[in-house]
Amino acid sequence: ATVTRAGAAGERGAAAGAEPARVSVARVEEAPRPRFVRQSGVTRPKKTLRLTSEVGGRVVRRPYGENETTGAERGDVLYEVAFVDTAITVAPGWRIVKLYYEVGETIRPFTLVADLINYDTVILDFQVTQAQRATLEALPETARVVRFTAVGLEEPGKGGRPRPREFEARIARLFPTVDPATRKYRVEAEYHNPEGAPAAVGPDLLVECAVLLSREPALRLPAGAVREEFHQAFCYAVDPDPAGGFVARACAIEVAGDHTDQHFLFVERLLPVTGRALRAGDLVVTEGLERMRDGAPVVFAPPAAPAPAGGGPGADAARD
């Protein structure tokens, strides 16, 4: 529902006699607020191989080309050479970066024949500050989880629109030395691509990483309930009016910088202001904030909202 009638502007005295604004509301919840370390990084393969041949001879067959992955369909042979039962082989699952010989060319013994990488495990490299590193080091190993998205890796979202696909990795190493250029510490996390399926995450991808550090007590409310003016965030809680009906009360708040859901915000702390303080269980106005003022009379748009926590005069009207 949307606001259909505007409430009177100004303080409660100015609102006296004004026709109530019809508003939609939502309940403020007490919910733990996640606190994250967020950093950008890149991916690289954990395993690389520069393959040299112990045999020599003329290449008579080369089953694979560059940028292909060795596997069961075509076996493990990279090169067949002109000797009886002689072949240069590699285990399945390696991506071929470069092949140094063509069919008809002669391989000399103990020379480089191929550059290979393995996508089974991909490394995420990113950097953190000294304070962030200390917090990560204090976490149990089971809690050192990195959630990340990569540029170009998407999945269908609501309405068929693409959205970033999220993956989960684990921190493997916290390096003790500082990078003199950035004054930050390097962190490595490992992502394991699923076995028996094409690699979901490859090397040289730009990634956005988030590590959950802690969960702290906070209030959660819909993002649509928060308004900002002159660098001050606030919302409107609905209170029973002793004279009957309901009024909107402005509550100054500070919104947390980290939140995981675009539809909800976390109140980091309540500001020390005189007047109304936001509490868990309050009903807050979610539509029509641009027409709200402190003390403005309001009525609930259908479907009717539950009464504000604590009841009071007019509480039954909220349930009707």
User: How many helical stretches?
Assistant: 3
What composes the largest sheet?
6 strands, antiparallel, barrel
The succession of helices and strands, N to C, reads HEEEEEEEEEHEEEEEEEEEEH
Assembly level: single chain
In the predicted model, the low-confidence regions spanning at least 5 consecutive residues are: 1-15, 311-320
**How far apart lie the N and C ends?**
17 Å
Strand content: over 45%
How many strand elements? Answer: 19
Strand order of the largest sheet: 3-9-12-11-10-13
Q: Report the structural category.
A: mainly beta
Radius of gyration: 31 Å
pLDDT averaged residue by residue:
80
Shape: elongated
Helix content: under 10%
Structure description:
The protein has helices at 12-15, 130-138, 315-319, and strands spanning 21-23, 25-27, 29-52, 57-61, 77-81, 87-89, 94-99, 106-107, 112-128, 145-156, 162-179, 184-192, 206-222, 227-229, 232-240, 246-255, 264-270, 283-285, 297-300. It has 320 residues and is mainly beta. A six-stranded antiparallel β-barrel has the order 3-9-12-11-10-13. Strands 6-5-4-8 form a four-stranded antiparallel sheet, with no helix packed on it. A hairpin with a 4-residue loop joins strand 11 (162-179) and strand 12 (184-192). Residues 1-15 and 311-320 have low confidence and may be disordered.
Which characteristics define this entry?
320 residues; mainly beta; 6-stranded antiparallel barrel; 4-stranded antiparallel sheet; 3 helices; 19 strands; 6% helix; 50% strand; elongated; disordered N terminus; disordered C terminus
